[in-house]
């Protein structure tokens, strides 16, 4: 089910003008910021499809930047996001792309700070609902509605078992899990949706396991 | 758990419940939250709808200047007492326009199911409240009825204009509003489902062709049309009229049509009204100055 709650239909409470091109775009920005774990110094926003054609009229650029600044879809400061970003010294580049995306409302956000870089692609599927479909080259499907761990690790046997062992020890139930890798033996990404959010101790324990590079926890 | 409108009606009728009660039960189960918390969350949305209408009828204007002030005109016209049809219908269309004018001005609205179609449902329900003295609680219940219909459409088809055209947005909103109006008026779950089908049938094939890519022209006025069609469908269902094509098949037809609508008519501002001489001139003005100066 793409839509799980009555409030996905009657809602969100939001600033206009578009649930998909404004509120949804802001939500993708919020998720990108959460995944990057800090405020970026520079962002590049690539718009595709309907987003590329109509982002100015829908304030999609303002919404994405507002989301990256952690502004909620109903935050009265949202229309001012571009000014706020520049006041905080964040460099913003908006790039409408020609390529035809799989979903008409697609945005790829690149976030930079010092040596760190992250690319997050999201789609806005209607009524403010969104999915993250790519995390720096790893395909995934992430709505951000449940607690989710993204674990970057070396593609090696036993890596998945060690992580699930840590969760088992804490009695945390896995609702959904997927693993993708760039190349055999190279970097891989585990995406684990759980019923309860893992504690910081659990996250630290996972981080200590061999082959684990980075653990990102998304809480709804 | 219901997946289709047929499921929903069967569950409601076999247990002697309303559609809104089935939706509320499912929300309690899926979210793990209490009935009170969920009702309070819906009340907050209802209050946003009420505020948006109050603001809209006082006259608001969008940044582009393309829309605004029409709800105020309609409200004054209604107060003047010299209208053609029925004050409930006129008030519903006025409230629908008010909400979408607030949306176009980047004001606060509640998406129902989307922001572009946020006027249709509150337009219908709040006009019925004001003309027929339904209580806040009854209107809040009716929002769950509308939510149930929207939930099925969103999961089995689409509510995105970019994916399915305006039929997916204002069409879905009108179906939701029609069903909610029927339950509010004391109709049966089956009548509510029929009203949803008849409303959606009247909006099948509708293109999404926003001028200059703004959620203004024709979106604001299409919500007035959505509200009027919803009330018409509700009246027909309450009179005992039913759709020859069952509601779930109408939803499937909407989805299938959406896949056949060319990209230029799916929220890309590439066709339809957006591609008219006037539509293109507005786009040029908007792109040039970031603001459409005159109308």
Describe this structure in words.
With 220 residues, chain A is an alpha+beta fold. Helix content of chain A is 30%, strand content 36%. Chain A contains 7 helices and 11 strands. Chain B is mainly α. Chain B has one domain: Orthogonal Bundle (2-methylcitrate dehydratase PrpD). Helices cover 65% and strands 1% of the residues of chain B. Chain B contains 13 helices and 1 strand; from the N terminus they run H-H-H-H-H-E-H-H-H-H-H-H-H-H. Classes of the chains: A alpha+beta (220), B mainly alpha (295). The interface between A and B is large, with 42 and 62 residues. Strand 1 of chain A pairs antiparallel with strand 1 of chain B.
Question: What's this entry about, in short?
Answer:
Chain A has 220 residues and is α+β, with helices and mostly antiparallel strands. Chain A contains seven helices and eleven strands. Chain B has one domain: 2-methylcitrate dehydratase PrpD, CATH 1.10.4100.
